[in-house]
Write a structure and sequence with these properties.
This protein is of the alpha+beta class and about 220 residues long. The protein is built from eight helices and four strands, in the order βαβαββαααααα. Belongs to the GST superfamily.
Length: about 220
């Protein structure tokens, strides 16, 4: 049976949501984060050479990386509407958002987390200098690019119910996690009403609620 190695408060919540949407059976193995840096435990890191979540086991196969796992699972469900077929109206948007999420949005959110931790966990004596340098980097590079990306997403969602059209796809399962994280790490204010509508809609899906219940909940790491 397929096993999802679920690290708490991690990207592996996406895989649980996908499996619940597909209605597939799976075994859930949970792992708690450890230490002041809330890292994966050693037994999780031993699962795969990169030691990152998500990771799945399926017979003799062991696979990591969100998009690789999503494609692997959808290859086994070729008729699923969660991956639009070539030539369908939503195919181009699906491909774009499926990959732009991990390639463009996720790195910005990770940088946000790293910068916050560098300030809060730097030695007190040099913390003011570290904060000054990091705040300049955030203002000059990170925040403009993150705002641009979130604005792009919000504008897209102003024209459709889901990110690739009016039907849920695996691109939503990938980007939904990032938007949950973004809402914690970024002050949305009134700038992204369509993202907020989208998140409320996503959280109402029974499959997403089942994934949260089985995993023990999801609280994105703020800093």
């Amino acid at each position: 049976m397929l096993t999802v190695h679920h690290l708490e408060n991690s990207q592996s919540i996406r895989i649980l949501w996908l499996l619940e949407e597909l209605g597939l059976d799976y075994h859930l193995q949970k792992y708690a984060r450890v230490g002041p840096n809330t890292l994966a435990p050693l037994e999780y890191k031993a699962l795969h050479p990169i030691g990152k979540a998500p990771t799945i086991s399926d017979g003799q196969n062991r696979l990591a990386e969100t998009n690789a796992i999503v494609d692997y699972l959808l290859d086994q469900q070729p008729n699923s509407p969660l991956r639009p077929t070539p030539g369908s109206p939503s195919r181009e948007a699906y491909l774009y958002w499926f990959h732009a999420t991990q390639g463009s949005l996720m790195p910005l959110l990770l940088q946000r987390l790293i910068f916050s931790r560098l300030i809060s966990r730097s030695p007190r004596l040099i913390r003011p200098l570290i904060k000054l340098v990091i705040n300049r980097a955030v203002s000059a590079y990170l925040q403009p690019n993150l705002s641009k990306m979130l604005g792009h997403i919000d504008n897209t969602l102003s024209n459709s119910m889901w990110i690739a059209g009016n039907q849920l796809t695996a691109a939503d399962i990938v980007i939904g996690y990032c938007l949950e994280v973004a809402q914690v790490r970024v002050d949305f204010g009134d700038d992204y009403p369509h993202i907020e509508r989208y998140l409320l809609q996503m959280r109402k899906r029974p499959a997403y609620q089942r994934a949260l219940q089985k995993s023990g909940g999801f609280s994105p790491l703020a800093a």
